């Protein structure tokens, strides 16, 4: 069948989001990863996979803001050569709202984040001084 991608959810109530800081969010995500590894670390059955995605689909269709992340780090995209040389820049084009995809940079020394947020949320990212201390908005790709 190929590789199965693991998915987990972390839920934050609206009242938490107002007071939540980045470290608390990272802690929630780390706990989610650990729970996922403990539950599915030794493999899964087809029934478990189907049940999980059914529950995940129900969670995603609720009347709530969902933000999704996918990491494509450590995939050798920049080593791929279809006969005309290695790519200068690799990007993802997924038409899913509120998604951010992480991918290694071409030189392997950093991580690119592609975001598909609405203008209001993007404005928060583009003006966040803590984030900008570590990141550039729309850097040159070559």
From TrEMBL:
Q: Which UniProt keywords apply?
A: Acyltransferase, Transferase
Show the InterPro entries listed in the entry: CAT-like_dom_sf
One example GO MF annotation: acyltransferase activity
Q: Please name the Pfam families in this protein's record.
A: Transferase
* Origin: domain of life: Eukaryota
State the family named in the UniProt similarity comment for this chain.
Belongs to the plant acyltransferase family.
Q: What is this protein called?
A: BAHD acyltransferase
């Amino acid at each position: 069948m190929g590789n199965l991608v693991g998915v987990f959810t972390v839920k934050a109530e609206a009242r938490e989001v107002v007071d939540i800081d980045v470290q608390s969010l990272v802690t929630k995500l780390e706990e989610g990863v650990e729970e996922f590894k403990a539950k599915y670390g030794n493999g899964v059955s087809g029934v478990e996979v189907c049940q999980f995605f059914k529950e995940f689909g129900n969670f995603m269709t609720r009347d709530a803001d969902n933000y999704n992340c996918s990491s494509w780090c450590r995939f050798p995209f920049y080593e791929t050569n279809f006969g005309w040389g290695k790519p200068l820049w690799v990007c993802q084009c997924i038409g899913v709202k509120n998604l951010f995809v992480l991918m290694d940079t071409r030189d392997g020394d950093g991580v690119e984040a592609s975001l598909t947020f609405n203008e209001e949320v993007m404005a928060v990212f583009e003006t966040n001084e803590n984030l900008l201390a570590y990141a550039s908005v729309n850097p040159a790709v070559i």
